[in-house]
Amino acid sequence: MTEMFKNLIAGEWAGGTNASRNINPSDTNDVVGEYAQGTVDQLNDAVAAAKAAFPAWSRSGPQERYEILKKASDEVFARKEELGRLLSREEGKTLAEGIGEAGRAGQVLAFFAGEALRLTGEMLPSVRPGVGVEITREPMGIIGMITPWNFPIAIPAWKIAPALAYGNCVVIKPADLVPGSAWALVDILHRAGLPKGVLNLVMGRGSVVGQALLQHKDVHAISFTGSVATGRKVAEACIASSPMKKVQLEMGGKNPLVVLDDADLKIAVECAVQGAFFSTGQRCTASSRLIVQAGIHDKFVEACVERMKGLTIDDALKAGTHIGPVVDQSQLDQDLKYIQIAKDEGGKLVWGGELLNRETPGFYLQPALFTETTNAMRISREEVFGPVANIIRVKDYEEALSVANDTEFGLSSGICTTSLKHATHFKRNAEAGMVMVNLATAGVDYHVPFGGRKGSSYGPREQGAYAKEFYTTVKTAYTLA
Q1: CA gap 301, 351 in Å, rounded
Q2: Which positions are catalytic?
Q3: Over 70: is that where the pLDDT of 1 sits?
Q4: What is the DSSP string of 352-394?
Q5: In CATH, what number is assigned to the domain containing residue 51?
Q6: Is the Cβ–Cβ distance between 319 and 288 less than 8 Å?
Q7: pLDDT (tens digit, 9 = 90+) per residue, 451-481?
Q8: Together in a domain, 233 and 293
Q9: What is the pLDDT of residues 179-235, one digit of tens each?
């Protein structure tokens, strides 16, 4: 029988009125499990539990928070192969990538365990004689979290961990498409010793559970990662609610990778192929626009195609697989739609873009690379979120920088060059939250801030010590001596 996984509300596991089937995109006959679909009433119960738990948890000592997060981190590390296999089975990224992401979740939990011990404040003299000023950070309160399907354990970890470290209570709604990894993470944290109600999990549809979370008057802040369209709706709902909610949005990207004539060709090709196509291109930091200077353009295209020909697209759990399947039929349809759009716009498909058959039924797509494209085309303007990239030819560095910045997005931006002058200028002038030099645009550290500009992000950064800007509020207190 298929195992049933329940919601966690007030420290107890609770079933829903129905359940969704978690399907393996590498083998659609394989059901990972059935996951309870939460109701509005259950969401309300979860918020009530978090509200009841907040007074005690917000005043708990840093040692208690440290020990719980560290214990959870230790279990994640001990089980990272198992958790990585679950992740790859439900989401479709390769087993190596799945294990790596599980390890990242463990690192995040360990980092924020330490942050619980590093809470600081300030004591300042007032401009008024005999008056002291104390500046402290306090937890926001009840944090609602809505997480995406493409990083099903890392993103829940990097939202939940700082929230708990800084004394908040949490209600999380993971992506309905891949709830298994988030469920496993919540189970680990629950068993690590969290008091009842501090962390609550309500799975289900965004239109039901997510909407109720956005509208609930007792939720103080919302952290969301997903599409731009949904992110705008989240922001509108948070501003329209009474009282207004603090909001943090991480959304899409149309990330450029600039390749100059002086680039090391091997490094540039690896940055492009890894950044554009690994994890099946399903990363908001993927290099979907490859902006290549004319002198190296033809050699770069030829080398990219040769590199792509050597990629193995197969079952995510198979040894030797470089790229797994697309996550589901809906995303596959979107990828194919944009491949056709690029063709209709005049782009030249130089490699890939074909559906593939493998031993098991799944959503297998050959990565697609287009040339003869301009930055005005839809393929250059709109996020595909799949293994599809296009090359834009430019005459010099100045045009490359202009094209790179000509986008509504601003998450990650990269350049491949051996010129210190151009690398330095690009780091300063790229209109993105993160800039990479001779590295793929996808791939970030857990102890530094993550986030972008323009339509990619809104609100305080995620990860690292900068996470406190969202999960805490500043209080200034005056005392007459």
Answers
A1: 10
A2: 250, 284
A3: no
A4: ---B---SS----B--EEEEEE-TTSHHHHS---SSEEEEEEE
A5: 3.40.605.10
A6: no
A7: 999 999 999 999 999 999 999 999 999 999 8
A8: no
A9: 999 999 999 999 999 999 999 999 999 999 999 999 999 999 999 999 999 999 999
State CA 22 to chain mean position distance.
20
Distance CA 290, CA 242 (A): 44
What is the count of structural domains for the chain?
A: 2
Closest to 309 (Cα-Cα) out of 265, 347, 351, 371: 351
Residues contacting 480, CB < 8 A, separation 6+: 130, 131
300: domain CATH number is 3.40.309.10
316: left (phi over 0), alpha (psi -120 to 50) or beta: alpha
At what angle are helices 154-165 and 180-191 packed, to 10 degrees?
30
Say which amino acid occupies 36. Answer: A
Direct distance between the N- and C-terminal alpha carbons of the chain, in angstroms, rounded to an integer: 69
309-362 per-position pLDDT tens digit: 999 999 999 999 999 999 999 999 999 999 999 999 999 999 999 999 999 999
β-pair partners for 457 = 250
Q: Which residues pair with 134 in a beta bridge?
A: 123, 477
Domain range for 50 is: 4-251
Is the residue at 16 inside a domain?
Answer: yes
DSSP 171: E
* Tokens linked to 251: 């959304």
Question: 378 in helix, strand or coil?
Answer: helix
Amino acid 332: pLDDT: 98
Question: What is the four-CA torsion angle of 75, 80, 81, 83, rounded to 10 degrees?
Answer: 90
